[in-house]
Amino acid sequence: MEDLIRDWGYIALFAYSFGGGFVGLVFAGVLSYAGDLNLYISILVAGTANFLGDQFLFFLARKNKSYAKDMMSKYGRKIALAHIMMRKYGSLVVFIQKYIYGIKTLIPLAMGLTKYSAIKFTIFNVIATMLWGLVVGYASYTAGEYILSAADDFKYIGLGIIAVILLTVSYYFKKI
């Protein structure tokens, strides 16, 4: 498993972070603490992917407004929250959105639909991404010992839960 993480960990981290997720960087920070990955490379890979993902969403909305509006139509309440945040915080929303699950992909889309400057968005996105990578990466690295010890303590409980689920599913399949 460790060889698989060393071989494919950065690629998986890039793919996950491109979508805006920070859980991948948390896992990479913990794995860096364990010695399986390099923290600096993990922060660089996750930050690059996160920056590129936000830029992609911004320019997708900027160049293809009808597709972006269709894509965002099913997130009515979250879009309303994104617009409120954009009005309330202005450009700082680029920093804030990196840490809020559920709207971190909608803010770049919403900003791309407006007349917000692309250069300004890119500059704020670079700074916000560097700050995000450092904060999440180092926080997960420093919490690595705690997270690994908690995972070690609860692995048997997790195995028990999986066993109960498998027994329940097999029981219902037997009935059917």
How would you describe this structure to a colleague?
The protein has nine helices and no strands. It is mostly helical and 176 residues long. It has two domains: 141 residues, no CATH class; 31 residues. Helix 1 packs antiparallel against helix 2. The longest helix has 32 residues. The radius of gyration is 20 Å and the shape is globular. 30% of the residues are buried.
Give me a quick take on this structure.
With 176 residues, this protein is mainly α. It has two domains: 2-142, no CATH class; 146-176.
Unreliably modeled segments: none
Written as H for each helix and E for each strand, in order along the chain, the element string is HHHHHHHHH
Quaternary state of the chains: single chain
Number of domains: 2
Largest sheet, if any? none
Tell me how many strands there are.
Answer: 0
Cα-atom Rg, whole angstroms?
A: 20 Å
Report the span from N to C terminus: 37 Å
Strand content: under 5%
Question: Structural class from helices and strands?
Answer: mainly alpha
pLDDT averaged residue by residue: 84
Query: Looking at the structure, what is the overall shape?
Result: globular
- How many helix segments? 9
DSSP helix fraction: over 70%
